[in-house]
Design goal:
mainly alpha; 10 helices; 75% helix; globular
């Protein structure tokens, strides 16, 4: 992967900085943000070669990417939960299309949050950062596909294989919740973003998975899952918002911290 990433840079850049940059990349495993950081640095080097993007590529600090992650977490936590609560609690009073739009925008915002906030996890444990980013990101993508299918002419017909659009969406949400637990653990280990926010995110994701099994006929601990789900989803959104706020309050961090 290192050779491929270096190849993204212009030839003149590689001749001058390539070997030195390779040594920097080989110092530690690369996390998701590291890869995004390098790609952005390569784009910068090609678009504005006079700025000599080697500094940004090797030290990170793409503040804009981190800000996008923070804003995405805040917007996603609010929009996703608002859409779900409106659809589940006020379905007869709220336009379904409006709720679906909120959920869709919230899901896309959470994907941006995962891209930006994964910067922090990679510095403590890059190997954990990949599944902590990849699993929930996959869940958000699958959720988007399901939502689009629900809005299409297929309706409740088979959409992908034997799965209906609803089934695809549920699969995406389950994957996203599992990934959010990993993301919360990685955030706690990194000790950079809000620890309380990460704990709330992880616990609410786990609670949603447990109580969500009631949809399959399992009544967890004799409690009606439908009555608690709105509160759990609100806690889920609050966890993301807390992480987003803490990210916006921090300055840029180095993409390649010492091992």
């Amino acid at each position: 992967m290192i050779g491929l990433l270096i190849a993204l840079y212009p030839a003149h850049w590689r001749r001058r900085y390539g070997e030195e940059f390779r040594v920097v990349l080989e110092m530690r495993p690369l996390g998701p943000f590291d890869v995004a950081d390098i790609v952005l640095g390569a784009l910068d080097a090609r678009v504005a070669p006079r700025r000599l993007a080697n500094g940004r590529a090797s030290t990170g600090g793409h503040r804009m990417l981190l800000r996008v992650g923070g804003v995405g977490a805040i917007a996603g936590g609010i929009l996703w939960v608002l859409g779900l609560v409106l659809a589940s609690s006020f379905g007869d009073q709220v336009d379904v299309t409006f709720s679906a739009l909120l959920i869709l925008l919230g899901t896309l915002s959470l994907l941006l949050a995962l891209i930006g906030l994964s910067a922090f996890q990679g510095h403590r444990d890059p190997r954990l950062a990949w599944p902590a980013f990849g699993v929930p990101a996959l869940g958000t993508v699958v959720s988007v596909v399901g939502i689009v299918g629900l809005a299409g002419p297929e309706g409740e017909a088979s959409f992908i294989g034997d799965l209906t659009p609803w089934g695809v969406w549920m699969l995406g949400i389950i994957t996203m919740l599992i990934g959010s637990i990993l993301f919360a653990v990685a955030t706690i280990r990194a000790a950079v973003l809000s620890r309380a926010g990460a704990i709330v995110l992880g616990l609410s994701s786990a609670a949603a998975l447990v109580l969500g099994s009631g949809l399959l006929g399992i009544n967890a601990a004799g409690v009606e899952a439908s009555a608690l789900m709105p509160a759990i989803f609100i806690a889920f959104g609050a966890g993301w918002v807390a992480l987003g706020v803490s990210a916006l309050r921090r300055g840029p961090i180095r993409s390649f911290a010492s091992a």
